[in-house]
Each structure stands twice: as structure tokens, then as C-alpha cells.
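Progress note, sequence design subtask.
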């Protein structure tokens, strides 16, 4: 399997509860390396741009409000098959459906406040990484 990079967000519900280290420990235990990371607070407009594929969904406004409500940690994770591996470690979007031991099973509060975001495909990973990081910030 090829060495890949994926984009990850530790969401406001998790930063608020001081879970950044606990979540990173899960990534690292799974063989994912944090190769870029920054803690920032998004504006609602910036969150809206990031999640624009969901603009027609009924939860879009609530999602953007939430993502701008408190700081997030934006990250690039690297590893063998990083996109699929990260999705496995995160667990299902709805914590009620997430497998035992996954981040969302352990930490997520609801389907909306679900602690982490991860890219779903190589194309989205590239776009999402470029939205948050310049090439100079990716040190490997
Ligand atoms: P994420 O992987 O960041 O991608 C889109 C997000 O929309 C998703 O995680 C959830 O946090 C959120 N989401 C998906 N479905 C719902 C829903 N039914 N209600 C509220 N938020 C949702």
C-alpha cells in the first residue's frame, strides 16, 4: 500500500474537553504520523467554504456554527493507506454506529459534535490539505 496523506480536524467538542493528545495518541498507535498541525479558530464563513459540499443539507448551518464556535486543530496525517486507516480509527460518523475503540465511539457527543473529521478520498484530501496548509508547512 502506498504512503498517503490525509486531512484531519479535531473538532471544537474535542478541543473544549482537552482531548487533542488522546486523539493524537489513537492516530499514532494506528501508524499515522502527524506531519502538520495547527490550532486555529475558523470564522463561520471559512467553515462554510470548507463544508460547501453539504450546503444543501438541513444540518449545514448548525455544522458551520459549531465548527466556528471554538478552536479546532487542523492536521495532515501520513501513513500507509492513510485515508482509509484514518477513517477506520475515527469510526462511523454517528457515534451510535461507531465500532468499539474508535475515536467517535469513545469521544464523540453526537452525530454533529463527533470530535473528528477526515478526508474521504485522495482528491478531497488534496483539496482539504491545500485549504489549510501551504507546502512550506508540510515537513514530513
Ligand atoms: P464530517 O466527517 O466532518 O463531515 C460532515 C459533517 O456533517 C459530519 O462529519 C458530521 O459532523 C456532520 N453531520 C452529518 N450528519 C449530520 C446530521 N444528521 N446532523 C448534524 N450534523 C451532521
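Output:
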Amino acid at each position: 500500500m502506498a504512503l498517503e496523506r490525509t486531512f484531519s480536524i479535531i473538532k471544537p467538542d474535542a478541543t473544549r474537553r482537552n482531548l487533542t493528545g488522546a486523539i493524537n495518541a489513537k492516530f499514532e498507535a494506528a501508524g499515522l504520523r502527524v506531519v502538520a498541525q495547527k490550532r486555529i479558530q475558523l470564522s463561520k464563513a471559512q467553515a462554510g467554504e470548507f463544508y460547501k459540499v453539504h450546503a444543501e443539507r438541513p444540518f449545514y448551518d448548525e455544522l458551520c456554527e459549531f465548527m466556528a464556535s471554538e478552536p479546532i486543530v487542523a492536521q495532515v496525517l501520513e501513513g500507509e493507506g492513510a485515508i482509509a486507516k484514518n477513517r477506520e480509527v475515527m469510526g462511523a460518523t454517528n457515534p451510535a454506529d461507531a465500532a468499539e475503540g474508535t475515536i467517535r465511539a469513545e469521544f464523540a457527543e453526537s452525530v454533529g459534535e463527533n470530535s473528528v473529521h477526515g478526508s474521504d478520498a485522495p482528491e478531497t484530501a488534496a483539496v482539504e490539505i491545500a485549504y489549510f496548509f501551504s507546502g512550506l508547512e508540510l515537513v514530513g
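Residues 9 and 74 are 5 Å apart (CA to CA). Work on this subtask will continue into the next period as scheduled.
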